């Protein structure tokens, strides 16, 4: 009886979190002027309209039959918005705006789903003790919530690429004065770090976060701060984009074919550099972290004679205290706005030294928030990995040696995904994420 009551309370709390996440995604879509909802700001991704349907289709496909025993009234949309339209020939997608249903139909589909899910999730009739393919209802609800919140971040940086006239400007707090950044490296002695999440913890995690394991990490030194736009400008001035020796063969080919000569967030204006914020263009902010692809980050690292950290090194520098490792770099307190730039407080980065209260036990700053950090580690399963049976491709589809682990988080990362085991990943040539890096020497 008691167990059932607390489960019901837990479900209500998760349902509330789902409603809050929906408000976030609704607010974000409202930033795009309606005339531009069929645009595709990033060539590799879908048109914006897809995601309006996708967020709801995902929740529906996960829950309607498996948990709620409901029939779908629109299986065609369920499929369309689960995956979108496959690019023909494996290249970039080439679907046209008119290939997609009218916005009113998409919105109608979305609101029907919300109504139905909310009615049934709020009912007391759910059997809380039941498991679904071995997973509790809580797990499925967390999957729905975090899936949506991950898309809120990927949509934010997708909308970042939309021309400013196509967006309704929101207030950007850009002014944050900090002391000049004094870069240095911090020695991390050899020792242990704990990577991954134990299945027994009861903490929600995605399939790729399990199982927990201990790694022993040789001595290395790591940048105290993320690499800044100022430092990256030095790389550009030194001819970084024109020197093949700094690039792997594949990365050089990509850079040359795409004619890339600076971070995608920068814009050359005569002899001046501008920075493209979410809603404006401002002078390049030299103390902000640079956001670049893995390829550009690796080239910079090679130029300095350093390297990108491995996932294990990153974990060791963030929380690897040996015993009783903290939940976050700063300790066990829940994330709050003094600890770093995350959880949607601002649209843009801050200087890299803005959050001394977020530093790790070794004194490394800004490890959570203000931009993900690329690692040198290809995305691969931890020992003991098992794909979620209700979403088999979530991670496994990307264990292909072409995706690299990113750790940390950005201004648009929800606090719930700052847990130490969370892993993000993108391809080496993906320039659009809020993702920078720091370097190591060994
Ligand atoms: C974990 C951010 C790489 O956006 O491709 C959303 C998350 N997967 N829907 C992505 C995701 C399916 C994923 N990342
Ligand atoms: Fe998705």
CATH topology of the largest domain: paralog of FGE (formylglycine-generating enzyme)
What fraction of residues sit in β-strands? 5-15%
The CATH architecture name of the largest domain reads Alpha-Beta Complex
Q: Tell me, rounded to a whole number, the average pLDDT.
A: 95
Would you identify the CATH H-level superfamily of the largest domain? paralog of FGE (formylglycine-generating enzyme)
Stretches where pLDDT falls below 50 for ≥5 residues?
none
What does the overall shape look like? globular
Structural class: alpha+beta
Number of distinct helices: 10
Q: What's the end-to-end separation, in Å? A: 56 Å
Q: Which value, in Å, is the CA radius of gyration?
A: 22 Å
Please estimate the helix content: 25-40%
- What kind of sheet is the major sheet? 4 strands, mixed
Count every beta strand, where a strand is a DSSP E run of 2 or more residues: 12
Count of separate structural domains: 3
User: What is the CATH top level name of the largest domain?
Assistant: Alpha Beta
Instruction: Give, in spatial order, the strands making up the sheet with the most strands.
Output: 10-9-8-11
Ligand set? N,N,N-trimethyl-histidine, fe (iii) ion
Order of helices and strands: HHHHHEEEEHHEEEHHEHEEEE
Secondary-structure blueprint:
Blueprint: H1 2-29, H2 48-63, H3 75-83, H4 103-122, H5 137-160, E1 185-188, E2 191-195, E3 213-217, E4 220-223, H6 229-237, H7 249-258, E5 266-269, E6 272-276, E7 281-283, H8 294-304, H9 311-319, E8 372-378, H10 393-396, E9 403-407, E10 424-427, E11 435-436, E12 440-441
Parallel strand pairs: 8-11
Antiparallel strand pairs: 1-4, 2-3, 4-12, 5-6, 6-7, 8-9, 9-10
Helix pairs in contact: 1-5, 2-3, 2-4, 2-5
The structure holds N,N,N-trimethyl-histidine (AVJ) and fe (iii) ion.
């Amino acid at each position: 009886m008691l167990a059932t009551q607390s489960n019901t309370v837990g479900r209500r709390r998760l349902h509330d979190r789902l409603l809050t996440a929906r408000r976030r995604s609704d607010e974000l879509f409202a930033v795009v002027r309606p005339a531009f909802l069929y645009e595709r700001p990033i060539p590799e991704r879908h048109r914006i309209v897809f995601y309006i349907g996708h967020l709801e289709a995902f929740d529906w496909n996960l829950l309607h039959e498996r948990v709620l025993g409901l029939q779908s009234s629109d299986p065609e949309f369920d499929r369309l918005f689960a995956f979108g339209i496959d690019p023909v020939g494996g290249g970039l997608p080439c679907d046209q705006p008119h290939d997609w249903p009218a916005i009113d139909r998409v919105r109608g589909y979305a609101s029907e789903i919300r109504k139905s899910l909310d009615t049934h999730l709020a009912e007391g009739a759910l059997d809380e003790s039941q498991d679904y393919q071995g997973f509790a209802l809580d797990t499925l609800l967390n999957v729905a919530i975090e899936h949506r919140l991950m898309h809120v971040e990927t949509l934010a940086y997708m909308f970042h690429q939309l021309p400013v006239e196509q967006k309704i400007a929101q207030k950007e707090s850009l002014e944050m004065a900090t002391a000049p950044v004094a870069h240095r490296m911090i020695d991390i002695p050899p020792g242990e770090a704990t990577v991954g999440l134990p299945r027994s913890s009861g903490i929600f995690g995605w399939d790729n976060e399990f199982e927990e394991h201990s790694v022993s990490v040789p001595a290395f030194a790591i940048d105290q701060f993320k690499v800044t736009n100022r430092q990256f400008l030095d790389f550009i001035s030194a001819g970084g984009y024109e020197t093949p020796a700094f690039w792997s063969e594949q990365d050089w080919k990509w850079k040359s074919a795409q004619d890339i000569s600076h971070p995608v967030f920068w814009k050359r204006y005569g002899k001046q550099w501008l920075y493209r914020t979410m809603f404006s263009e401002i002078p390049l902010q030299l103390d902000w972290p640079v956001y670049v692809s893995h390829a550009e980050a690796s080239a910079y690292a090679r130029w300095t004679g350093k390297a990108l950290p491995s996932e294990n090194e990153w974990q060791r520098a963030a929380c690897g205290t040996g015993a009783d490792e903290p939940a976050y770099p700063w300790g066990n307190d829940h994330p709050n706005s003094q600890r770093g730039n995350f959880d949607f407080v601002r649209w843009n980065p801050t200087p890299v030294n803005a959050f001394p209260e977020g530093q790790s036990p070794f004194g490394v700053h800004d490890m959570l928030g203000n931009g993900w950090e690329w690692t040198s580690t290809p995305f691969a399963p931890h020992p003991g990995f098992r794909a979620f049976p209700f979403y088999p491709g979530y991670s496994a589809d990307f264990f292909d040696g072409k995706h690299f682990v990113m750790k940390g988080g950005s201004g648009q990362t929800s606090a719930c995904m700052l847990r130490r085991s969370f892993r993000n990943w993108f391809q080496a040539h993906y320039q659009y994420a809020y993702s920078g890096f720091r370097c190591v020497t060994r």
